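Entry for the shared binder. Reason: the reviewer on the internal report wants the predicted structure included alongside the sequence.
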Amino acid sequence: MFRSLKKVFQKARSSFASFRSQLGKKIYQLFTKNVEEASFDELEKLFFEADLGGELSMKLVDKLRILHKKNPTISPEDILLFLEEEILAILEKEKKEPMTSASAPHVILVVGVNGSGKTTSIAKLAKYYKDRGKSVLISASDTFRAAAVEQVDHWAKTLGVSIVKSSPKADPSSVVFDALSSAQAKGIDIVLIDTAGRLHTKTDLMQELEKIQKTAGKKIDGAPHETLLVVDASSGQNALDQAEIFHKYTNISSLILTKLDGSAKGGVVVALKHQKNLDVRFVGLGESAEDLTLFDPRSFVKALLEIDA
């Protein structure tokens, strides 16, 4: 049972067990009783509470109303299977492939709000690429906090990857310029640019991202080649606001989803794709550098709806 899920989310399976029982089981129970209009109202409420968002919740409920009208004896299992395919179709629609660069280094800008797990995600990405035979350099461009530079420096030493850093309060763009110069000189494959964890509502700090991007683009053609937004899964609908504001200042390529455990409702993944057309590329499943996996939509939907793998 859940074989595919266990392969992809092995470290988080105990958390997912709780997560599945909260949504999938409730949907199942809802359709084992006499189905009335109130049943669909309750279903819409469940979707909304799972962070699917109001528009998508109503859309899915309307489709289920039509399905049930055509087949009043439809089983709860078939209801869940129908929802699985509907949600999977959303997640896989116009799925973007990771951008590639014509020559090294491939530059990845990592952004996110305070507390999202951005710096830890930088370390996980460094480990991910190093394990695949790539040389990695980290640009410690979060000069706003001395502790942030110390943290990423510790990770770089632990993982055995290169780092370029500067003194606290230094111009982040100058650190990026030096990092890219170093990467070119050393023939580095991947450059990961850390940025200050910032509130997406702070315009001056967001404009700093624009400066970083311009500096990177002037130094290396097409850089940054990817921009990954780190999103805390437990932030719910606030993640949509974050994505919208960040996207105004950075061309977000895809998402890194962190803290996807029993406390996260998970449906925000679907809402981000449905409303913002943003794909989750990586999922962080813990605090160690190994706890990063490629996002698998089908395994996620099965976990969301408690459907056997």
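Summary line for the report: The longest strand covers residues 106-112.
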